[in-house]
Predict the structure of Methyltransferase type 11.
Amino acid sequence: MLVPLYEAVYERLDLGGGTRMLGLGCGSGLALLMAASRGASVTGVESRFPERVDLARQRLLPEAPGGRDARARADAARVVEGAPRDAADPSAPAFTLVTAFEPIGCLAGDSEGLGELLAQTVPLAGRGAAVVLAGWGPPERCATTSVLRVATKLADPLRGAGSWRPALRDDLEEVAQRAGLRPDGSGRVACPFGYGGVDSAVRGLLSTGLFDAAIAATDQEQVDKELSEALHPHQRSDGTVWMPNVFRYLIARTI
């Protein structure tokens, strides 16, 4: 769903050979794979979804006959399960690009979590390195907003802890300021969410973790039911689900 965001950032930064990229919360590795295809040396870190680390490694390091090309690819791509400090390599040059593509501005407390990640990460980057932060755009520009409100409503018994909340205009800038980074440009990108049907949309949205607090406060069956009902206005005549959204990105620099 966020491929347009990755492409926009890579184009703006003219990413290519010579770039040493550290991807925070790399998930299944798609953003890393796209960067590697442009010639970048990539390292991914994932702590929230360890089950996706294997998929990221399969994408970046597919089984292939040994030889110089296979060894070179292995040297140019790594996926680490753990914290940013686990990706540190004292023998390697500093990272020139850090990406945090998992959008903030939708979960209560997610800005603080990203700030903690950056506190560990900034020392691994060189001076003037680009740090890319991503977030949800204005709620009125995101069709998925009405669906995500289900998470807040159902998680209310937990006082909204870990549940969805509307994105704020300066979410990204505030995180960058607290991390001691210097803003160096921003942009907005259209990232529509498309699914083959309501069932696949429910599975896809649940996989984001945005509904975990709602499930804990109620139960899986109720969340599935209310999420399905909220998706019906976005279902087209052919059964597919389509929700236009806008995401923001901020490029900041280490000092």
Q: What stands out?
A: The beta strands are 20-24, 41-46, 77-81, 95-104, 125-136, 182-190, 193-195, 241-243, 246-253. The first strand starts at residue 20 and ends at 24. Confidence is low (pLDDT under 50) at residues 70-74.
